[in-house]
């Protein structure tokens, strides 16, 4: 993956097309080719009147999700992946939650996404919970592999504990009605400073975004 990164750094957009035409059999070239075929649907959770959870400092989850999601998308695009976002601004398709969720799910299918990755921040009633977790259809091999790969990368950052992978089929519309392999990632509990300071900081967001993107790329390049 390092070489792929270097290609991006040293080539401009026009030149990279030539680089990708070279079929040297090099592993990185092959990875780049695989990435180019893939579309990943990135879903920054919530939007508009649906603010999501509230951070310890009063910031809204919807805005933090969007900020991290855009960074994930940038990482993927730099690796040659086609990225489609459910939203790039503070908006909703529908104020009826189920309709809005379904629209995002339908869109991921319409664009023929290899994966749907939904990005969220958590909060707990007691305000003391911490940790990263991922919701997926644990019976779907591809979804499970995606969630596992993303979690492994996030756990590697060691900014918080891990609550593991949870079967979200009966809990979350996005997971239960998924039409493409889906992982919904909760990057931590923003209602306390322990997780929140890292997740709201620019450095933390960059690291989290890179980890999520790497988790996705590891699976795409398998
Ligand atoms: Zn959320």
TrEMBL record:
It holds the Pfam family Amidase_3. InterPro entries: MurNAc-LAA_cat, N-acetylmuramoyl_amidase_3. The keyword Iron does not apply. GO terms for biological process: peptidoglycan catabolic process. The keyword ATP-binding does not apply. One of its GO terms (molecular function) is N-acetylmuramoyl-L-alanine amidase activity. Residues 105-217 form the MurNAc-LAA domain. Keywords: Hydrolase. GO terms for cellular component: outer membrane-bounded periplasmic space. PANTHER family: N-ACETYLMURAMOYL-L-ALANINE AMIDASE, N-ACETYLMURAMOYL-L-ALANINE AMIDASE AMIC. This is N-acetylmuramoyl-L-alanine amidase. It comes from Breznakia blatticola.
């Amino acid at each position: 993956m390092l070489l792929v990164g270097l290609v991006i750094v040293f080539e401009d957009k026009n030149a990279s097309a030539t680089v990708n035409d070279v079929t040297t059999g090099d592993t990185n070239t092959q990875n780049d080719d695989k990435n180019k075929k893939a579309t990943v649907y990135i879903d920054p959770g919530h939007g508009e009147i649906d603010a999501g959870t509230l951070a310890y400092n009063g910031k809204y989850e919807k805005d933090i999700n969007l900020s991290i999601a855009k960074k994930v998308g940038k990482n993927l695009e730099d690796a040659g992946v086609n990225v489609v976002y459910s939203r790039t601004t503070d908006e909703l398709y529908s104020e009826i939650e189920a309709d809005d969720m379904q629209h995002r799910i339908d869109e991921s299918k319409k664009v023929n996404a290899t994966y749907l990755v939904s990005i969220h921040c958590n909060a707990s009633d007691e305000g003391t919970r911490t940790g990263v977790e991922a919701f997926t259809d644990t019976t779907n091999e591809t979804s499970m592999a995606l969630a596992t790969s993303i979690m492994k990368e996030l756990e590697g950052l060691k900014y918080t504990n891990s609550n593991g992978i949870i079967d979200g089929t009966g809990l979350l519309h996005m997971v239960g009605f998924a039409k493409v392999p889906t992982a919904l990632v909760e990057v931590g509990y923003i209602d306390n400073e322990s997780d929140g300071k890292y997740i709201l900081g620019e450095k933390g967001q960059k690291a989290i975004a890179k980890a999520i993107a790497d988790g996705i790329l590891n699976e795409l390049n398998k």
